[in-house]
Design a protein that fits this description.
The chain is 71% helix and 0% strand. It is mainly alpha-helical. The protein folds into two domains: 16-70, Homeodomain-like (Arc Repressor Mutant, subunit A); 81-213, Tetracycline Repressor, domain 2. The longest helix has 26 residues, at 136-161.
C-alpha cells in the first residue's frame, strides 16, 4: 500500500479564541472564519434547520457582519459547497500526482476518498449527503465534484491503457464512484475495518479490473498480426 504524505486540513473552526480574534480579522480572514462556523452549523443541523443567527453566534460576530459577506443563507451554503468540492478535487489530484506507478495511483485515489470521508470536518456531508441535493444549483455542484475527479482519473486511463475517450470516461467514473460510495458505507457502518485494510481491499478489486488493459505503449510496440 502506498503511503503518501497527505496535507493536514487547514479549515478554521470557530473556537472561542478564534471568535474573540474575529473582531480584529481582515475581511478575507473573517470570511474564512465565517465559512468555518457555517460548516459546523450546516453539518450538525442540516441546511433547513440552520439559521444565520446560529452561524453568526458560532463565529462570534453580529448578524449584520455576517450579511456583509453573504447576502443570504443560500449564498453562504453554496460558497461552502464550492469550498468542499475544491477540497475533494484537490485531494484526488494530489493522490494521482503522488506517484507514476499506476497501481499506486489507484491505491492513492481510493485513499483520498477515505481520508476525505473520514476527516474530522465532515465536509463530505455537504457534498454527498446534502438535504438540498435535488436543488439544481446544488445538484450541479455535486455532479461537478464527481465529474472533475473522474476526468482526472480517466486521463491516466486513456493515456496508459489506450482505450477510447468514452471507455476512459466510463472507467474513471466507475473508479471514483466505487471509492466514494464504499468510503461512505465504511463510515456509516462505524468503520468495521481499519481504514488501511478497507482501502487495500478496494484497491485490490479496482486494480484487478483496470490492470486487464495492457499499457498503451505495449500495444503500440506489439507486432501487427
Amino acid at each position: 500500500m502506498l503511503v503518501t504524505a497527505r496535507e493536514p486540513e487547514c479549515h478554521v473552526t470557530a473556537t472561542p479564541q478564534a471568535r474573540t480574534a474575529g473582531a480584529r480579522l481582515p475581511k478575507p480572514m473573517r470570511r474564512v472564519l465565517l465559512l468555518g462556523a457555517a460548516r459546523e452549523v450546516f453539518v450538525s443541523q442540516g441546511y433547513h434547520a440552520a439559521a444565520m443567527d446560529d452561524i453568526a453566534e458560532r463565529a462570534g460576530v453580529s448578524k449584520p457582519v455576517l450579511y456583509q459577506h453573504f447576502a443570504n443563507k443560500r449564498g453562504l451554503y453554496l460558497a461552502l459547497l464550492d469550498e468542499s468540492v475544491a477540497e475533494l478535487v484537490g485531494a484526488v489530484s494530489a493522490a494521482l500526482e503522488s506517484t507514476t506507478d499506476n497501481r499506486q495511483r489507484v491505491e492513492a485515489t481510493i485513499g483520498a476518498f477515505f481520508d476525505y470521508v473520514g476527516g474530522a470536518g465532515e465536509a463530505f456531508r455537504l457534498i454527498f449527503e446534502s438535504d438540498l441535493g435535488n436543488e439544481p444549483d446544488v445538484r450541479d455542484r455535486l455532479d461537478l465534484a464527481m465529474r472533475e475527479c473522474a476526468a482526472m482519473v480517466s486521463e491516466f486511463i486513456r493515456a496508459d491503457a489506450g482505450v477510447s475517450n468514452a471507455d476512459a470516461d466510463m472507467l474513471g467514473m466507475a473508479l471514483v464512484g466505487m471509492a466514494q460510495v464504499s468510503a461512505r458505507y465504511w463510515l456509516r457502518t462505524d468503520r468495521p475495518l481499519p481504514q488501511d485494510v478497507a482501502e487495500n481491499l478496494l484497491a485490490r478489486l479496482a486494480w484487478r479490473g483496470i490492470s486487464g488493459w495492457p499499457l498503451a505503449e505495449s500495444q503500440q510496440n506489439s507486432p501487427s498480426p
